[in-house]
Amino acid sequence: MIDGGRGTVGKVAVIGLLQRHGKGKTKVRLTTVQNTSREDLQPIIRKNVKAGSELYTDSHSGYEGLNDEYFHEFVNHAETYARGKVHTNGLENFWSLLKRGLRGTYVSVEPFHLFRYLDEQSFRYNNRIDMDDYDRFRKLMSKVAGKRVTYAKLTGKPANDLASLW
Question: Domain 13-130 belongs to what topology?
């Protein structure tokens, strides 16, 4: 279960990448990570962010060493939250929306399913401007039509575990 407190014990780490500019509009990409080490974070950044791009992060040590590939600047949140265009405010806004959605709508989220909730929230966010709820629903249904999800895949439990529900 995802806890709302400040520590990391019992929580699943999530990395978020927010594209501020470029084709289209602001986009967010999310994925869970085993931990927040440089070895886990930087391959995700390299896969999703074009070399030579401007990269703005907080001062977490997992982002150290990106200066050779990116125009990397960071803010130390112990000192300030923004230094001109160097800030993480857009992504902080998204985290606020995500947490509000998880706590207010779903109340309890199991770590096994977290990536699904992340996908849903990023889909909503990335399609918030030029689509209304009906358009988002139609787009979503066009992606899942004809696909089958088994009980075992959905729950991570074998099908013969159904007896334990009764």
Answer: Nucleotidyltransferase; domain 5 (3.30.420)
